């Protein structure tokens, strides 16, 4: 063995107070030094392993955080879409309900107005017929026909052919005259 390849070990302990260093002391110091070096290697390996594990935990945490963020964004988008769809359905239901209520109210007003118009026409015709020289059967027939036609939205008057000139002169274009040869030509 060459002296240039001898291992050199530095011992960081105080030398004994004696002038002679015993081999047991040196052996003990070398054993302690070897154990200390082994402990340093083991602790360094433990620290390195812990550091790698910590880095992996941090990387996993960042990855998990990104995944959670993506999931949250997807859930928020789904909730937003779902909420908008529900709100749209509710709005449409309310809008349809209001339209139906408006339609019902409009129908009620139209029915009331039609009933009022029908009654007014009937009263006017009955009052007018009372002032005319036409027989009562004809008056009642005309009143019923006028009432029925008013409900249908058109006024037609069925008359005997002999009364056509008189009716056209009297009513003008207020009624659509329908000639009925089977009616009685009597006048009052």
From TrEMBL:
Cross-referenced InterPro entries, in alphabetical order? Answer: T3SS_SctL/SctL2 (IPR012842)
Q: Which domain of life is it from?
A: Bacteria
GO CC annotations, alphabetized: cytoplasm
Q: Which UniProt keywords apply?
A: Cytoplasm, Protein transport, Transport
> Where does this polypeptide localize?
Cytoplasm
Taxonomic lineage is: Bacteria, Pseudomonadati, Pseudomonadota, Gammaproteobacteria, Enterobacterales
Which family is it part of? Answer: Belongs to the SctL stator family.
Keyword Transport present in the record's keywords: the answer is yes
Q: Is Transport found in the keyword set?
A: yes
Can you say what this protein is called?
Answer: Type III secretion system protein SsaK
Q: Name one GO biological process term.
A: protein secretion by the type III secretion system
């Amino acid at each position: 063995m060459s002296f240039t390849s001898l291992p050199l070990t530095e011992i960081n302990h105080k030398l004994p107070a004696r002038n002679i260093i015993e081999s047991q002391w040196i052996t003990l110091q070398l054993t302690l030094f070897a154990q200390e070096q082994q402990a340093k290697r083991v602790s360094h390996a433990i620290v390195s392993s812990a550091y790698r594990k910590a880095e992996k935990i941090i990387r996993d945490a960042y990855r998990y955080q990104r995944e959670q963020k993506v999931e949250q964004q997807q859930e928020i988008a789904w909730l937003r879409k779902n909420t908008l769809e529900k709100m749209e359905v509710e709005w449409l239901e309310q809008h349809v309900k209001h339209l139906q209520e408006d339609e019902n109210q409009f129908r009620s007003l139209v029915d009331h107005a039609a009933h009022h118009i029908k009654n007014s026409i009937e009263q006017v015709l009955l009052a007018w017929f009372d002032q005319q020289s036409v027989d009562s059967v004809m008056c009642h027939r005309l009143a019923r026909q006028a009432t029925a036609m008013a409900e249908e939205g058109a006024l037609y008057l069925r008359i005997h052919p002999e009364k056509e000139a008189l009716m056209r002169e009297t009513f003008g274009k207020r009624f659509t005259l329908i000639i009925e040869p089977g009616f009685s030509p009597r006048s009052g």
